[in-house]
Design a protein that fits this description.
With about 300 residues, the protein is α/β, with parallel strands linked by helices. About 40% of the residues lie in helices and about 20% in strands.
């Protein structure tokens, strides 16, 4: 099953029997609340709000949103808001997290806390999913937002995190392209060497529930005809679901280039903790925040 666009993902989440509860840390932010209550109106999520009660109530009034103000969990600081949000997840009172008006570092500090946090022993990585008009289905890019220069073992975990997201979305065996500039294993190009390692791990059964191809360049990943001309036969060409990039810079540039130049729309989240975390940048539109909520709701196990 391939999802062609975000509309299909929205429809899929709406069919779920139970709405996922999103804990919004430091919810006193207009764009965030706009996205959350649009998702609630569309029967996608159930909001749990944590933060400055007075400010949240004021924003909700301006947005003409009906909400039980007494259920807002009032906190005095960003640190307290982050800790309370994590506590709600651990006590099973929420299903995933969304960052509101607080620093990313404050939220992640509570998430990775050794005693009370949400670590699972896996690396935490960023998954961006894009709808690109020129491609026939949704495509994921990882990791362009969290791990800076991952080694082969970290890339394996980043890959597995992304595969878990696709399995939760209903895919049976997502197709992963491990990107490089070439298709040959050049010892002077670490990303090509890593790609070869990951492909062999997939072939030996160490990386499960997906098909891994690499090293492979972007043109052959997207263009089956180019691959055939080059004599590169793979089920991945023209059909990739997940692009594993060499480092954060590549992933960041690639995502933003598609957004700015190819009319793409994007959703993103942090995975690898106990639950997905919607952690969009301050410049993110309400639409990106909304789609990221949809994506995270679909990825909750």
């Amino acid at each position: 099953m391939d999802l062609r666009n975000f509309q299909e993902l929205i429809a899929k989440v709406q069919k779920n029997d139970s709405k996922k509860r999103v804990a919004v840390a430091a919810a006193h932010d207009e764009h965030t609340l706009e996205a959350v209550f649009q998702a609630a109106k569309d029967k996608l999520v159930e909001p749990v709000l944590i933060g400055n009660k007075k400010e949240i109530a004021e924003i909700l009034k301006n947005l003409n949103v009906e909400y039980d103000i007494s259920s807002i969990i009032c906190t005095e600081s960003d640190k307290e808001a982050a800790e309370k949000t994590v506590e709600l997840i651990n006590s099973n009172k929420a299903d995933f997290i969304m960052k509101g008006k607080l620093q990313t570092a404050d939220l992640l500090k509570a998430v990775v806390d050794k005693e009370k946090g949400l670590r699972t022993g896996k690396v935490m990585s960023h998954v961006a999913i894009l709808e690109v008009p020129a491609y026939h289905k949704l495509i994921a890019i990882t990791d362009g937002g969290m791990m800076m220069y991952p080694n082969a073992d970290e890339k394996k975990q980043i890959l597995e995190n992304a595969v878990d997201v696709f399995l939760a979305m209903g895919y049976e065996s997502p197709k992963v392209a491990v990107l490089a500039a070439v298709e040959t294993v050049n010892p002077k190009m670490p990303e090509a060497v890593d790609a070869d390692i990951l492909k062999k791990m997939n072939q030996s059964g160490e990386i499960k529930d997906c098909i891994v191809e690499g090293p492979i360049s972007v043109d052959l990943t997207f263009n089956k005809e180019s691959a055939e001309i080059k004599g590169y036969n793979s089920p991945i060409t023209g059909e990739a679901d997940i692009l594993l990039v060499p480092n954060i810079t590549t992933g960041n540039i690639m995502s933003k280039a598609l957004l700015e130049m190819a009319n793409a729309t994007m959703a993103g989240m942090i995975v690898g903790a106990k639950v997905p975390i919607v952690l969009t940048s301050r410049g993110a539109t309400s639409q990106e925040k909304y789609l990221s909520l949809v994506l995270s709701a679909s990825a909750v196990k």
